[in-house]
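Morning. Coffee machine broken again, so started the prediction first thing and wrote up yesterday's gels while waiting. Chain of 329 residues, entered below exactly as on the submission form.
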Amino acid sequence: MTALRFDILGIGNAIVDQLAEVPESFLSRHDIHKGAMRLCDAATAEHLARALPNPRETSGGSVANTCATAAALGSRVAFLGKVAEDRLGRRFRDDILSAGVHFPTPPLTNGTPTATCIVAITPDGQRTMSTFLGASVEFAPEDIDANLIGESGIIYLEGYLFDPPAARAAFRRAARLARQAGRKIALSLSDPLCVDRHRALFRAFVRDSVDLLFANEVEICSLYEENEFEAAAERTRAEVPLAALTRSEAGSVLISGGETIPIAACPTRLVDSTGAGDAYAAGFLHAYMGGRDLALAGRLGSLAAAEAIAHLGARPGAGLGARAVALLR
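Came back before lunch.
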């Protein structure tokens, strides 16, 4: 088996987040439903970006956020995702590289702009997202590096990639190569609407290919069409070796064979809920790939999520590192 170069290889949408704190009136003025994530075209994204007060730009996308946070914790991390050869594409590349993440995917040159997500954060800490997917959905099977997959301990796939056909084909190729190389496959369900659109495909993929599933309460209930979390968790137990199911302030539940491990949420102050699930996955994967027991991995995931929502932006602050070291001693 090929020697490990990376602990984690993430594959997902490469998006530049443009975040700003806004008054409630910003949402009504632009006819945006609070707390939602909607897809928009390039012109709408550009219009909203111009309207944001003092926006902050950072490399984003769910799995990219997980990769950056895991790297900050000390994991060896790589990421595959598509950006364009434009200003935002260069911004994404510079930012993800500065986070310590290897990013070898060549940029798109056909004129499609880099993806961006306009994140409007209201005073109650709620985030409302308008996303232009741009170049990210043109990620294709030829962007999958077979050698890189063989050199990575776990391949972490983003459920959003199930939407566009070319990206879905890349997703499946990555999973196939990971299985052939004897590597573990992790999947984030990403969004309940995405699950609703591709439920049968997701179920088959989880059952046949996934070693570790990340999902929140709404997503896992959507996957199995259950109204109660407990029923959905039992369905998960029968189909995937390990699942980390998050429940916001109720913490999370780890499902592994006949074992159920509840993990308490860490006390924190909500400033911005953006990226809580991404940070949880980063903390969990860092401990899990480091050989720690499941309960400790869940506790580090909970700590990372609490740190992420305590300040503006999708990633935890610098204080996470010291707290993680103390927890893992």
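The two ends are 31 Å apart (CA to CA). Going to sketch it on the whiteboard this afternoon.
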